[in-house]
Design brief:
This protein has 339 residues and is an alpha/beta fold. The chain is built from 13 helices and 13 strands. α11 (289-294) links the parallel β11 and β12 (297-301).
C-alpha cells in the first residue's frame, strides 16, 4: 500500500495531464472536439488506479484468511509481508524442535553394576521429586517393571540433586557437581546426547543416566521444507554443545549455538541479523518474549506457548507443528506475487 501511494503521487498527475493533452491538442488540429474529449475521458476512466489500489488490501486479506484456515494467525498485513524478506529461521529447541517432556535416553552402569539396579536406585531416590527429569526416571523404571522403594529420608540439594537413604544405604543422585561435592570420582567424558544424571551408593560411583527431550516428529520435515525454500536455520540452546549438535544432526539444523542463557539469545540474534540478514525467531516460552520482540518477525508456537510469547509475536501457530513455519512463509509470499 505504501508503494502504491508513492506510485500514485507520480502516476495520477501524469495521467490527468495526458488526458488534458489528448482532449485539447488533437481537437485544435482536427476541430473534432466531441470525439477527442470523449477519448480523453475514456482514457481517464481506464487509467484510474482504483482496481490497483483495491487489489492490494484484498490480496493481503486473502492471505490472512488462508493462514487462519491452516491454524496460522497473522497479526495484520505487515506481518504477512515480512515473510518475503526472511533469510534465517532461528528456532528455540525446547517446545519447538523437541517436545517439552524428558525421556530416558540411555543407562550407563559402572563396572559391576547392573543396568536394572542403577535405574531402580535412581528411581527410588527421585520418587518424591517433582522435577521433570525425576518424572522421566521414575516412568522409565515403571515401564521396565522395576522395584521402586519409598526412601527412608530425602534431602534435596538445590542445583545439585538428591541425597536419599534406601535399604541399600545412602544414595546420591544428581549432576556432576553433586559427585564432586562428596568426592566421588566420575567418568570425564560426556554422553553424546542429553542431560547426565550421576548416581553413587555408599560413596561409590554406580553409573549415570542420559536424559533427553523427545524430538518432535514434525521437526525434520519442517527443517527440510525450510531448506527447499532457500532459508537457513539455526538453534540457540542452553544445552551443552554435544547434546545440541546431536539434535541438529538428527533434524538437519544448519547452525547451533550452545550454552546460551536467555539474555545471550538476544545478543546472538543481533549477530545473526548483522551477518545473514532478516531473521525469524520461533519460540514458545516466556523467556522467548524478548527475542521474539527483537527479531524481524516472531512466531509463537501457540499449542503450549506462553501468553507472553503469543502476545509479543507477529504470528501465532495454534498447534505445535514446526512444519507450519514453511507453510506460513509460502502463504506470506503469495499475496506479494498476486499484487
Amino acid at each position: 500500500e505504501r508503494f502504491i501511494s508513492r506510485f500514485a503521487r507520480i502516476y495520477t498527475p501524469f495521467v490527468v495531464f495526458l488526458a488534458v493533452g489528448t482532449a485539447i491538442i488533437p481537437s485544435l488540429i482536427t476541430g473534432d472536439w466531441s470525439y477527442w474529449v470523449y477519448t480523453a475521458l475514456s482514457s481517464l476512466v481506464i487509467s484510474c488506479p482504483c482496481a490497483l489500489v483495491l487489489s492490494v488490501p484484498l490480496a493481503f486479506f486473502s492471505g490472512i484468511g488462508a493462514g487462519s484456515k491452516k491454524g496460522i494467525l497473522f497479526k495484520g498485513g505487515v506481518s504477512l509481508e515480512a515473510m518475503n524478506n526472511v533469510k534465517v529461521v532461528v528456532m528455540d529447541k525446547t517446545g519447538t524442535i523437541t517436545k517439552g517432556n524428558f525421556v530416558l535416553h540411555a543407562a550407563l552402569p559402572a563396572e559391576g553394576t547392573k543396568t536394572a539396579d542403577l535405574l531402580s536406585l535412581c528411581a527410588s531416590s527421585e520418587s518424591t521429586s517433582t522435577h521433570p527429569i525425576a518424572h522421566s526416571i521414575v516412568s522409565a523404571a515403571k515401564s521396565a517393571n522395576l522395584e521402586i522403594q519409598e526412601p527412608q529420608s530425602v534431602e534435596e540439594l538445590a542445583g545439585h540433586g538428591i541425597r536419599a537413604t534406601l535399604s541399600e544405604g545412602e544414595v546420591l543422585c544428581g549432576n556432576r557437581k553433586l559427585m564432586d561435592q562428596f568426592g566421588i570420582q566420575t567418568p570425564s567424558e560426556d554422553t553424546s546426547y542429553g542431560t547426565e544424571v550421576f548416581a553413587a551408593l555408599n560413596g561409590k560411583y554406580t553409573g549415570r543416566l542420559a536424559i533427553s527431550h523427545t524430538i518432535n516428529e514434525d521437526a525434520t520435515p519442517a527443517l527440510n521444507a525450510l531448506t527447499r525454500l532457500g532459508i537457513k536455520t539455526a538453534m540457540p540452546t542452553r544445552d551443552a554443545a554435544d547434546s545440541a549438535e546431536a539434535v541438529a544432526k538428527e533434524t538437519g539444523i544448519d547452525k547451533v549455538y550452545a550454552k546460551l542463557l536467555p539474555q545471550d539469545k538476544v545478543s546472538q540474534l543481533s549477530k545473526i541479523r548483522t551477518s545473514d540478514g532478516e531473521v525469524m525467531f520461533v519460540g514458545d516460552g516466556i523467556n522467548d518474549a524478548p527475542v521474539l520482540a527483537l527479531s524481524n518477525i516472531g512466531i509463537a508456537m501457540g499449542g503450549l506457548g506462553s501468553d507472553a510469547a503469543i502476545e509479543t509475536a507477529d504470528v501465532a501457530i495454534q498447534t505445535d507443528q514446526p512444519s507450519k513455519i514453511a507453510t506460513a512463509i509460502r502463504i506470506g509470499r503469495q499475496p506479494r506475487n498476486t499484487v
